[in-house]
């Protein structure tokens, strides 16, 4: 017998027998709901048998039979009424548990977000994706669903989304493209490290979304609730359906601030900051300027994260400022990294270690931040010891720069597009979905083993643009993405270690070593980061100009 938990109050299961009821009672359940009509199968006990066994165990049993594939709005309403009245927890069952899960999903639709419902059901082994329309419509059968249709629909208007839209239009200006994104502002996120270091002002990293979207695209200013790949449709919040011939998925990732206990309540005060948010990067620079002595902690969560070098970029720029202002000897700089290495590509570690030693930074590997007491200025870390035991370690701080855990967005993780870890499941070379041929993806949301950086998206966008057009029959051959990523590691104001690499950590410099040696700190690489990359982003990448990003056509 298998209990599949949907919430603390409800689990569902396949058909139970009368002799299972004692075990159900022992497992703590206080009520049973039968959602399977009597006589549906030749080996099925009647509800009367189940009810008698339940009564003998002191459990309430209720009969709410639903015909397979015909769950009505009234059925869902009755299920919700039972859940409100019955003592918890409750076990609901039918032939497989699917009808019970469906009833729960529909009765919760008016109070829970669609991704939460689909995600909980998926975790329990039930795919409620076919109900996306109804759940998005507060659990009711839609009387009329507004729809639109486009040749190409792009989910997400971040760096990847706008770049691929522009690359498509640069190849064929006649394309009918819609971009779905609810945001009013587009951000140049690679600049936030420089804001936290006092080099850029925050305003230079933000522009109105309407100003950066290509003029020829249709901007659908809405949030995505779910995908119906078999129907070639994206379901928006509010139940509107957008149909497509080809879908490109690039919504970025989710910063899970709430995964660290106490963090949301103290962000932006009590010395707690992060360059991973536009409004907090200026606070980083304020803390750096004001700090005179004490411990400064910089954290890095488990991979994958957006721009794996960003946590230590903040650390180096802060340390450089304290060194220049004569305070570094009074400040203890500590890095707590959940991983096991300073940087994932070993070729660049020696140059980074020179600055770790120069700034006398304490490196602590295998430490994952789990809680912050802002007013008390204490950070708590979880560490797994060599013998497998887990210890909790607390450290006080004057300032702490936090990088939150990062996942795919909820509506991605709960969708048929996701792999077991929740990322969009693509072929790492063509960036085409492994199951759905008319879907492509790029940027931070994919499961390809590349670094999640804007530089990676810049290289991926032309690959996806070409392959989408090839799939439409208007381009020849397949373009291949080689895993390129770049991370300009700001080790000091005016010096950068320019890390560039492909899949497998193979070093892949864009410039000859006599011009920029990526394995050594470089002034020229700093000028590239400070003066060249921002205009390259706004005026080239987002405009479909593929400087140093032309895709390789392999067949």
UniProtKB/TrEMBL annotation:
InterPro entries: BLH_phosphatase-like (IPR005939), FAD/NAD-bd_sf (IPR036188), Prot-tyrosine_phosphatase-like (IPR029021), Sulphide_quinone_reductase (IPR015904). Residues 3-110 form the Beta-lactamase hydrolase-like protein phosphatase-like domain. It comes from the Bacteria. Signal peptide: none annotated. Transmembrane segments: none annotated. Its cofactor is FAD. GO terms for molecular function: FAD binding; hydrolase activity; quinone binding; sulfide:quinone oxidoreductase activity. PANTHER family: SULFIDE:QUINONE OXIDOREDUCTASE, SULFIDE:QUINONE OXIDOREDUCTASE, MITOCHONDRIAL. This is TIGR01244 family phosphatase.
């Amino acid at each position: 017998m298998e209990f599949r938990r949907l919430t603390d109050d409800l689990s569902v299961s396949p058909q139970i027998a009368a002799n299972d009821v004692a075990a159900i009672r022992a497992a703590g359940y206080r009520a049973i709901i039968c959602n399977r009509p009597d006589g549906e199968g030749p080996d099925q006990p009647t509800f009367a048998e189940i009810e008698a066994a339940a009564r003998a165990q002191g459990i309430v049993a209720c009969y709410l039979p639903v015909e397979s594939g015909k769950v009505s709005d009234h059925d869902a309403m009755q299920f919700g009424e039972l859940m409100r009245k019955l003592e918890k927890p409750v076990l609901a069952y039918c032939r497989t548990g699917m009808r019970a899960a469906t009833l729960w999903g529909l009765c919760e639709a008016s109070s829970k977000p669609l991704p939460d419902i689909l995600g909980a059901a998926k975790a329990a082994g039930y795919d409620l994706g076919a109900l996306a329309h109804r759940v998005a419509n507060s659990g009711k059968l839609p009387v009329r669903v507004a729809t639109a249709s486009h040749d190409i629909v792009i989910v997400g208007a971040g760096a990847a989304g706008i770049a691929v839209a522009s690359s498509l239009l640069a190849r064929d200006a006649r394309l009918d493209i819609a971009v779905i994104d609810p945001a009013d502002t587009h951000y140049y996120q690679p600049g936030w490290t420089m804001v936290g270091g006092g080099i850029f002002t925050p305003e230079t990293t933000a522009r109105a979304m309407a100003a950066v979207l290509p003029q020829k695209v249709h901007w659908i200013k809405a949030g995505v609730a779910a995908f119906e790949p078999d129907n070639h449709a994206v379901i928006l919040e509010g139940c509107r359906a957008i149909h497509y011939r080809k879908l490109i998925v690039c919504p970025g990732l989710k910063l899970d601030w709430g995964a660290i206990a106490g963090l949301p309540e103290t962000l932006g005060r009590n010395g707690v900051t992060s360059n991973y948010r536009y409004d907090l990067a200026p606070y980083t620079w304020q803390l750096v300027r004001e700090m005179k002595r004490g411990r400064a902690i910089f954290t890095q969560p488990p991979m994958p994260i957006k721009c794996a070098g960003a946590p230590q970029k903040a650390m180096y720029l802060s340390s450089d400022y304290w060194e220049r202002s004569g305070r570094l000897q009074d400040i203890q700089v500590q890095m707590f990294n959940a991983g096991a290495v300073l940087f994932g590509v070993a070729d660049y570690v020696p140059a980074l270690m020179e600055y770790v030693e120069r700034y006398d930074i304490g490196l602590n590997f295998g430490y994952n931040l789990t809680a912050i007491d802002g007013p008390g200025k204490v950070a708590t870390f979880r560490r797994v010891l060599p013998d497998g035991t887990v210890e909790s370690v607390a450290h006080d701080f004057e300032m702490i720069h936090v990088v939150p855990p990062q996942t795919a967005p909820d509506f991605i993780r709960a969708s048929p597009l996701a792999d077991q870890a929740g990322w969009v499941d693509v072929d790492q070379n063509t960036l085409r979905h492994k199951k759905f041929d008319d879907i492509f993806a790029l940027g931070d949301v994919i499961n390809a083993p590349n670094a999640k950086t804007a530089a990676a998206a810049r290289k991926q966008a032309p690959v996806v643009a070409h392959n989408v057009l090839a799939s439409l029959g208007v381009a020849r051959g397949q373009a291949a993405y080689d895993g390129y990523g770049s991370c300009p590691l700001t080790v000091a104001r005016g010096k950068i270690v320019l890390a560039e690499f492909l899949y497998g950590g193979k070093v892949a410099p864009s410039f000859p070593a006599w011009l920029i040696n990526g394995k050594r700190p470089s002034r020229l690489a700093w000028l590239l980061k400070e003066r060249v990359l921002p205009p390259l982003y706004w005026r080239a990448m987002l405009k479909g100009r593929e400087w140093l990003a032309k895709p390789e056509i392999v067949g």
